[in-house]
Amino acid sequence: MTENGGIAARSTAPARTFNVDLTAPGRFRSGIETWFEILHDNYFPLDVKVGREFRSGLLTRVDIGEIRACTLKTDPMLTERRTSRSMPDGRDFYVVEIPRAASIRVAQRGRESVVRPGGFTVVNGAEGYTFETAQLNEVRTLRIPCRSLRARLPSLDDWVAKTRESSQPLVALFLDFAASYGQHGPALPPAHHERVEQHLLDLLVMALLGADDASSETSVRSAHRQRALRAIEQRFCDPALEPSGVARAIGVSERYLQKIFSERRETVSATIRARRILEAKRLLANRAPLRLSVTQIAYAVGFSDPAYFSRVFRQATGVSPVQYEGDAPRAPA
């Protein structure tokens, strides 16, 4: 592995480049391991598979504020995020995948998309997903803290592994800005990083929402739903939170709110419960380092009855809270 460019002060934020070249005799195994380490260090833990035709990989990284912009040039490979390894302090990331030279395949949450050059998709790095490029490719990526995007779009996971095409004006605008962000961002004074970052995130959300022409919700109802999801995100740990409280928080009637959610075959109660279960999974996966009991986790995520929590958790995951070890498939005996 070679690395060009060092770590400098945050104010200059120079690009760093990592690459492997497997053409030298005897370098295949060590080079592959090095490439896996590069991907691990610049994104998060991934399972990577490459064929014998794999010969080189190059990654250029720029950190601007809390966003990491990378350009990946690689021979064919398959990467899988098999388990939620979310951090206790919430340091999880979404990754925007922007293929430049050839199509990529992305799968998450039961959805699978082929993203062509000129489009993009988003994956949630806190959950399992698959990324594959079947030929030599260049892919731009943006690694963004989950909390930054969820603050703008609590329902962002509804959009993971869906394709957005540049034929949509908002998508084209976002892609142009993202390319410029990675190119010129490092030269910006640190005082400007946050403002430019906010513009990038706003454009990303607009590109996702504006291109979702399959949605049957009106803009008003969509706005109410987003506000309701934001209220749930802020208060789901409160055991007293009920649909009526969510409706009051956003200034609509409970009946109207339930109607909005029913258009997506959802209920407000189920949405609150699902958010609590998701947080419980995060805490249970880190139960040992956090030193939390199942009962403590039940109370922490908004359940007032630990026995009821255990029943609901088993219904949602197929295992009890005590048995839960993350979303990775268990190794065969």
TrEMBL record:
Coiled coil: none annotated. SUPFAM superfamilies: Homeodomain-like. SMART domains: HTH_ARAC (SM00342). Residues 226-327 form the HTH araC/xylS-type domain. GO terms for molecular function: DNA-binding transcription factor activity; sequence-specific DNA binding. Keywords: DNA-binding, Transcription, Transcription regulation. This is AraC-type DNA-binding protein.
